Every structure is written in C-alpha cells, then in structure tokens.
Amino acid sequence: MPRRWLVTEVWLVFALSLGASGVRAAIDLIGAATSGQSLTAQTALIVGNPASGRPWLSLFLLLDSLAFGIMPVLLVIHFLIRSGERPATIGVDLTRPRSDSVRGAAIAAIVGGAGLGLYLAAHAAGVDLTVVPEAIPAVWYRIPILALSALQNAAVEEVLVAGYLLHRLRQLGWGDNTALATSALLRGSYHLYQGLGGFAGNAVMGLIFGRLYQRWGRVMPLLLAHFLMDAVAFIGYAELAHRVSWIPVPS
C-alpha cells in the first residue's frame, strides 16, 4: 500500500479510538486538578452502572457499550486483510495456546503485582484519583459483565497499541525504540483520567508489553495477561472493596 495510505489509516484508527480517549483523559485530569479538591478525594470510575435502579436497562446499555467498544479491533483486522495480511500477522490467532497461556499468566503476575503497588504508592502520594474499577450493583450479571469488560479492554488495547501500531510503524520505517516510546506514551495518555500515577504506570507497562511484542511478534500472550489483570482488578474490587482495609475506596 502507498505510504500515505498507511499514515492516514493509523491516524484515523486512533482518532476514532484510543487517541481520542487520550485527549479526553487529559482534559479530565485538568478538570480534576483544577476542581479545588485533592485528587485522592475524587474518583475515576471504570465500569459504571448506567441506569441506577433499572437493572435490565443497565444490562442492555452495558452490552451495547461492550459490543460497539470492540469495533476498533474489527476495523484494524479489516485494514490488515485489506493490505494483504491477516490477524496472524500480528499474532492474533490460537496456534500457540500453551506458550501464549504460560507467558500471559507470568506477565500478569509480575506486571499486575507491580502495577498494584505503584497505584497504592501514587494514591498515598496524592497524585492519583481513587480508582473505582466497578460500580455495578450485586445483580446476577455483575461478574459476567466485569469479565467481558476485562476482555474488551485487553483486546482493544493490545491489538491496537501493542500489535497494530508497532506493526504499522515498523512498516513505515520507524526505529523500534522510537515506535516503542510512542506506543507507551499513547498507552499512558488514555489513563490520565486516573492521575499522573495512572499515566506513569501504564506507560511503563506499555514499554514492557511493546518490547515483548517486538520480540515475540504475538499479541495473544499480552492480551491474555491484560485480561487476567483487569479481571482480577474488577472482580477483586467487587468482592473485596470495603472489606479489605488497604484497598482505596471513595470517602
């Protein structure tokens, strides 16, 4: 494909997805920082309850958000196929279930544990908002929706930021280190709504995940690791918030 097409493609993909989220997150952080309240006194909600007191309406709205939220992944797959490639080009396939699972579980344990420690430290230092992973009432669909939300987050972020972006930047002639830094900064940007700690922690995660993608050429272990980390965060918060003293909760 002509170089200018690839450049336009990349800009459009991220203007319609995580790039736009990064801009909104930066605006949210500016709003939080200038509100007159400390950051730790404010909350950053990830999975909310869109229709309080109306569980069926809330379920349909959550499913609607999940269904349309995954569309950027399908768009990227379409662009790969259009350019004569396949999802397997960036390692989105099920050809290596054992190695992908082992790698994903190991990454989740190491990066997830470090990320939790960094969040607690940043929150204690007053540079992060109180992150509320979920606020769905204890209804029958709570855990399935949280698991699906974790899967959607993992698919969108890893397919777009780790796989697609680094693959396209390499095709455009970017050096691996420059592409890696760009990918990591993008990953940090759309977490700015959580505070500076959220930005820094996710940028570091981006450096790790991006380098592993450049080394392995596979998204699947990263997707699995991200899913496990988010699932533990969402479901763990649902089960343990207000029961475990060291988990920050809204005051």
Order of strands in the sheet with most strands? 1-2
Estimated helix fraction: 55-70%
Apparent shape: globular
Structural class: mainly alpha
Number of helices: 9
Oligomer: single chain
Number of beta-strand segments: 2
Strand percent estimate: under 5%
Radius of gyration: 18 Å
Average pLDDT, all residues: 96
Order of helices and strands: HHEHHHEHHHH
Number of domain modules:
1
Tell me the major beta sheet.
2 strands, parallel
Pick out the low-confidence regions. Answer: none
- How far the N terminus sits from the C terminus, by CA atoms, comes to 54 Å
Note the main attributes of this structure:
251 residues, mainly alpha, 9 helices, 2 strands
Task: Report what the structure shows.
There is one protein chain. The chain is built from nine helices and two strands; from the N terminus they run ααβαααβαααα. Helix 2 crosses helix 7, helix 5 (97-125) runs antiparallel to helix 8 (196-216) and helix 6 (142-171) packs across helix 8 (196-216). The model has no long low-confidence stretch (mean pLDDT 96). It has a two-stranded parallel sheet. It has helices at 3-15, 18-33, 55-69, 71-82, 97-125, 142-171, 176-189, 196-216, 220-240; strands at residues 43-47, 130-134. With 251 residues, the chain is mainly alpha-helical. It starts with a helix and ends in an 11-residue tail after the last helix. It has one domain (3-85, 100-240).
